[in-house]
Write a structure and sequence with these properties.
Layout lengths: L1 H16 L5 H13 L11 H15 L6 H5 L2 H24 L5 H8 L4 H8 L7 H24 L1 H16 L3 H20 L5 H16 L9 H19 L4 H33 L3 H8 L4 H11 L3 H16 L1 H17 L1
Helix pairs in contact: 1-2, 1-12, 2-12, 3-10, 3-11, 3-12, 3-15, 5-6, 5-13, 6-8, 8-13, 8-15, 10-11, 13-14, 14-16, 15-16
Protein name: AbrB family transcriptional regulator
Keywords: Membrane, Transmembrane, Transmembrane helix
Pfam family, one: AbrB
């Protein structure tokens, strides 16, 4: 674990010095991936993801304004999200079954827009998870992270303007309030985690911070820049560790499927977001970031850097993950029902 942290820190510094977009994240990801070829024991403690969620949750919560969600999140937004997810899945499923000649089961799992944890739960009943399915989701995750970095680079002016407000906010941070927010996020997050709710510590960190800043506006809670940078670097390292498990042979065999599924999902997102942006009178890029099937942490970080309503973006991804995490229970119930019908 220590060697992984060393490469993570060194990669993050290199990415920052080279002025890469989202340099901490991509610098750490690339160096950890390269180092894993020589150090096969590269790993991070499972609580690292908890740290990332708390940092990002509090960072986003410090930006949430009273009534922001009520004014944006509506039945129309929820309907748009479900519509986008459904079409993403159908298009991906048709491609994998007809073009790639995958089985129906693997095609469905590979086409599901995100939620790696839910996919692993579903494949847990098999002797080993389908490598092609896992690789497809990995390609999607990395591709969307790269795309997010390009957006951040091309929108440099907007990002710089947004960062200045973050700096002012972080300078007003009070240590006592931050400590209370972290402890509350951990305690409540553990409760939500036991209920099976995705990204529990991000949710609690956001709600505790937003609620605290609303109740006591004179003592705002904010997350220091250094901790946000560390969280981004660790997120990149986690992605690098996941990618190292894919062999060269698997890469060559499944790369095309992963790239096409990602591209098709992105095209669907762009089209559906355009339609609902007009219907709901919401910013187009905000809806794209909210409905693209990427990692909740990566998409929230990108929205945070670009000033694209990160609270709204994160909430949409939380809803998407909650819907997808209910998929294992749905499929299990469907399988049980079919087995009962067959016995009759």
């Amino acid at each position: 674990m220590l060697i992984t942290l060393f490469y993570t820190a060194f990669g993050a510094m290199l990415g920052t010095l080279l002025l890469l977009p989202m340099g901490e994240m991509f610098g750490a990801m690339l160096l950890v991936l390269l180092a894993s070829k020589y150090h096969h024991s590269m790993s991070l403690h499972h609580h690292v993801l908890t740290f990332i969620q708390i940092v990002l949750g509090i960072s986003v919560g410090s930006l949430v304004k009273t009534g922001e969600w009520q004014s944006h999140l509506s039945l129309g937004v929820l309907f748009g999200l479900i519509t986008c997810m459904t079409i993403q899945t159908l298009v991906g499923y048709c491609w994998l079954t007809r073009i790639e000649q995958w089985s129906k089961n693997d095609s469905l799992l590979g086409a599901v827009p995100g939620a790696m944890a839910a996919i692993l739960v579903i494949t847990n009943s098999q002797e080993s998870p389908s490598q092609k399915v896992i690789f497809t989701h990995t390609v999607r995750l990395v591709s969307l992270m790269v795309l997010a970095s390009i957006i951040a680079y091309t929108a440099e002016t907007q990002a710089v303007a947004a960062s200045s407000s973050y700096i002012e906010n972080f300078l007003q941070t009070n240590p006592l309030g931050l400590a209370v927010a972290v402890l509350a996020a951990i305690g409540l997050g553990i409760m939500l985690e036991r209920l099976g709710i995705p990204a529990p510590f991000m949710i609690t960190g956001l709600l505790v911070t937003a609620g605290g800043n609303t109740v006591v506006p004179a003592m705002p809670i904010a997350m220091p820049d250094i901790l946000v940078s560390i969280a981004m670097a660790l997120l990149g390292a986690l992605v690098g560790i996941r990618i190292k498990l894919v062999t060269l042979q698997e890469t060559l065999a499944y790369l095309k499927a992963g790239v096409f599924i990602t591209a098709l999902g992105l095209i669907v997102t762009l089209v559906i977001a355009g339609v609902f942006s007009t219907l709901l009178d919401l910013p187009y890029l905000v809806l794209v970031m909210s409905w693209v099937p990427g990692s909740i942490e990566a998409m929230t970080v990108t929205a945070l850097l670009l000033g694209l309503e990160p609270g709204f973006v994160m909430l949409n991804h939380i809803l998407r993950l909650m819907l997808l995490h209910s998929l294992p229970a749905f499929l299990l119930a469907l399988k049980t029902r079919r087995s009962a019908e067959n016995r009759k």
